[in-house]
Amino acid sequence: MLNTYQSRIEEIYNRHFQEIAGANFTLREIDIIVCIVHNRGEKKIGELLSISYRTVGAHLRNIRSKFGCVSREDIIDAVEKSGKLQYVRQYYCYLVSELLLNKTLRRIGKIVNNSGINCSADFNNIIDEENILWKQIQQHLTLANISIPEANKSDKAACHLWAISQLSDINKLPNNKKQAVNNNVSNNIALLFDQKADPSTFNKMPYVNFSDTNNYYFSMLSLVEKIICKPEVKQITAEFQVEYQKLQDSWTGTSVDTKLGNNSYKFTSKVSIFIITLLIISLTTAFWWFWPKNKVDVAEANQEFAKFIESYSFEHVGVAEGLKQNFSLLERIDNVVANLDHRNMLNYFKSDKSSPGELLNYLYSLNAIGMNLLYNEYNEKKARKILQIAKTGVESYINKKCSVEIDFNRSSPEEIYIELDVIDGFPAAYAKILYLLGRTYTYSDEDKRIIPPISQADFEDVTQFYNVAAYFGGKIKIFEGFLSIRSGIEMVRLLKIKDYIKNGDHYRATKQIINSINSFEELKKDRNQYVLDYRPGKHQFKTIIPADDNFNQVFISKQIVELYAMLVKITAVGDQRSQYVEKISSYFVGDKDIQGILDELKGVPLKVVAAMYNSLGDILLQFIGQDINFNKFKEQLEKKLNITTENELEFVKQVFNLAKTKSRNTYYTKVDSYDGLIRVYEKMLEVKNIGEQKAQDLKEYLNELKKKRDALKKQLEAKSLR
After folding, report:
1. Considering only CA atoms, which of 712, 642, 722, 648 is closest in space to residue 683?
2. What does DSSP say about strands 146-147 and 117-122: parallel, antiparallel, or unpaired?
3. From CA 665, how far away is CA 713, in angstroms rounded?
4. What's the start-to-end Cα distance of the chain, in Å?
5. Closest Cα to residue 94, out of 203, 6, 201, 179?
6. Are residues 311 and 451 in the same domain?
7. Residues 602 and 507 in one domain
8. Helical H runs in 593-691?
9. Residues 90, 260 contacting (CB under 8 angstroms)
10. CA distance linking residue 107 with residue 695, whole number of Å
11. Same domain for 509 and 361?
C-alpha cells in the first residue's frame, strides 16, 4: 500500500495496539489513549480527532472499563508497563501532523479560495491500493475548498488531474500542460503514484509526486499550490513546512520519518536508543526499589473487608461527626485498599470464584473510605478515584453475568435498575456510590470553597449520577435517594442558576430559582421513611423521616433563604423585592405558618449551625450593600440571638462571630466566618467621620483577621491535597 497518514496509523495499530495489557481496543480507542498519554484534555482530543468531547468522554469510559482503572494516570501506567510507549509517540506524531495539515488546508480554503474551485480528474486506471490514496487526496482537497464533481461533470473545471499509476498509458497524456482535456479545462496536472514512472515522459506536464518516496503532506500542499496558483498559497505552504519541521524536531531522539516510508516506525537516532535504554533501566530499578512489597492479595483483602463491614457504622450519611467512632477502622481498611491491586480485585469479581457478598463488602468499604475522604479530609479527587473503582466494580460484575454488555452511561435509570435488581443489595450499593461520586464534584461548591469549574462532560456525568441514585432511592427507600435530590440535583441546578446570573440572564435565573424553592419546600414536607444505615447482611435498619429531622430542616431552609437572597439581588421591582426579604425573615425567625431556622438548631451538628450563621451574615451584608431596610428583621434576630448592638454593621459582625465560635479549626466554615468579618470591617472603614484612631484600630483588626484566615485556609487546602 502507498504510504498515507491513514495507512501508517493502521500499520502501527495492527502491529502493536490491537491488544494492550490483556485488553483489546478499537482504532478510535487507541486514538484516545495516545492523546491521554500526551496529557491532552477531552476538548483538545476532540479537536485532534474531529469528534465532540461527549464522544471522547464515552470512549474514555470504555477505555477505563477495559483497563479496569479509574484515572488517566492509571491508563498511562498501563501503557508504560506494556512496553509500547515508543509506538504511542510515533502514532501521536501522525495525529498532530494530520491536524496541522488540516488546519493549513482550511486556512487556504477560507482565506485564499473562499469562492471555491472545481477540478476534473482521470483516475480510471488505478489499482485498489492507489484508490485509497486518491480518496484521501479528495478529502484533503475538500478542506481547501477544491471539489471534484462526480463523473467529472463540472462545466468550469480549473484543471484536470491525471493519475500516473502502474496501469497508466503515458502516451495518452496531453502534449503540454495547456492542452485541454475538454473545452472547459485550462490546466493539466499529473499525480505520480508509480515511483518507477519517468517524469520526463509527461510531455512537459507539471506533476506532483505522491509515491511513497515523498512526504505526503508536502505533496498535498504542492498540488493545492498548482491548482490555485496564488502567491498567498505559497506563503501559507512555507509556514506549514516551518511548523512541521518544528514538530519533527520536538520529538527528541525519535525523529519521525518525514517521508512516511515503510521504516518510519523505527527510531533513526542511535543517541535516542541509548537514552531510551538508559531510561528503561532507570525505571526498572526505581520500580524494584519503590514498589510496595507488602501488597495485599485478594483472599486477605476479602477477609479484611468482611471484618470492616461487621464493625463499621454507616449512620449519619454525609455528617462528619457520625464518623468519629470509625476512624480507627477506617485507618486499617484504608491501608488495605492502598496496598491492593484493584485490577486483580476486579478480575476476581468477574470470575466464577467470587460471590456477590464479597463484592458488596468491597463496595461498601470503598464507599466508607470515599465518604471519609470527602467529608473529613476534603480530598475530593482522591475520593472520586476510590468511588470510580467501586462504580467500575458493579458494572463489570453485572456485564460479566449478562449475555449482552450494558452501556451504563447511556442506559436510563429504569434500565439500570432492572439489571441490578436481580442481585440482592446491588441497587442500594450502586445508589450510594453514585450519590457520593456526584458529591465529589458539587460538595465543595456547596461549602463555598474554590475548586476548578466542572467541565461540560463532567457536568453531564454528575447529573446522570444523581438522577440514577434518586430513582434507585425512590424504588428501595434508602436515604441516598432523597439526598440525591436535596444535595445533588438541586446543587446542579444551583450551578446553572449562578451561570445564568453571571451571564445576565435574570429571566431564566428567576424561573429556575422559583422551581428550586418549590422543590426544596416539597422536600421539607417529605414524610417517607428512608433507610439510613443500610449495609450487606443486615436486616434491621435505622430509618429517617426528613420532615421530622432537624438537620434536614435546617439544611433545606438554609438553601431556600439563600435562593430568596439571589432573587433579592436580581429583582429590580421594589415591591417584589420586599416580599422576598419578608420570606427570608420568616424562614429565619418563623411566623404563624413555619418554624424559623433559629428554633430548629437543637441537635444539629456545629458545622451546619456555623454555616447557617455565615449564610445569615452574607445575606445581611447583601442587604446593606443594596440599601435595603431590614430594621424589623434585625429586631427579631436580636431577640432570637440575644444580641444588642448600636448599628447594622455591628450586628452583622456579631453574627459572623457566632459562626466563628461554632466552627472547629478543621472546618471551612471558620474560613468563611473570617471572610465575613473582613468584609464587615472593610464596610466600617467606608463609613464617614469614623475618626483616625478607630480607623487605625479597624485596619489592625483587618490585618490580623486576614493572617488567621490565610493560615487556616492554607492548612485546610494542604490537607485536601494529601
Report:
1. 648
2. parallel
3. 10
4. 53
5. 6
6. yes
7. no
8. 606-625, 631-641, 648-661, 668-686
9. no
10. 61
11. yes
Whole-number mean pLDDT of the chain?
81
Grid cell digits, residue 607: 458545622
Same domain, 465 and 559: no
Q: Predicted confidence band at 181 (pLDDT cuts at 50, 70, 90)?
A: very low
Query: Cα separations (Å) of 338 from 292, 295, 312, 330, 331?
Result: 10, 9, 19, 12, 11
pLDDT in tens, 604-614: 888 889 999 99
pTM of the model: 0.57
Question: Would 139 be classed as within a structural domain?
Answer: yes
Does 182 have pLDDT greater than 70?
Answer: no
Where is the domain boundary, 107, 135, 160?
107
What is the grid cell recorded at 404?
Answer: 449482552
Q: How far apart are CA 638 and CA 84, in angstroms?
A: 70
Helix (H, G, I), strand (E, B) or coil at 582: helix
Tell me, yes or no, whether 433 and 482 share the same domain.
yes
What range defines the domain where residue 701 resides?
555-721
Confidence of residue 452 (pLDDT cuts 50, 70, 90): low
Q: How far apart are CA 164 and CA 169, in angstroms?
A: 8
Contact, 339 vs 292, CB < 8 A?
yes
Please name which of 661, 627, 628, 629 lies closest in space to residue 643, comparing C-alpha atoms: 661
Cα–Cα distances (Å) from 410 to 430, 465, 489, 496, in that order, read 16, 12, 18, 23
The residue written with cell numbers 464596610 in the block is: 683
**Residue 322, pLDDT above cutoff 60:** no
What is the helix, strand, coil percentage profile of the chain, to 5?
65, 5, 30
Same-domain check for residues 406 and 369:
yes
Tell me what pLDDT residue 544 has: 93
Residue at a domain's end among 60, 78, 107? 107
Domain count, the chain: 4
Q: Which residues contact 317 (CB under 8 A, 6 or more apart)?
A: 371, 479, 480, 483, 532
**Taking a C-beta distance cutoff of 8 angstroms, is the pair 628, 582 a contact?**
no
- What's the pLDDT at 96? 84
* Long-range interactions of 191-197: CB distance < 8 A, separation 24+: 191/137, 191/161, 191/162, 191/163, 191/164, 191/223, 192/164, 193/2, 193/126, 193/130, 193/133, 193/163, 193/164, 193/165, 193/166, 194/164, 194/165, 194/166, 194/168, 196/166, 197/164, 197/168, 197/170
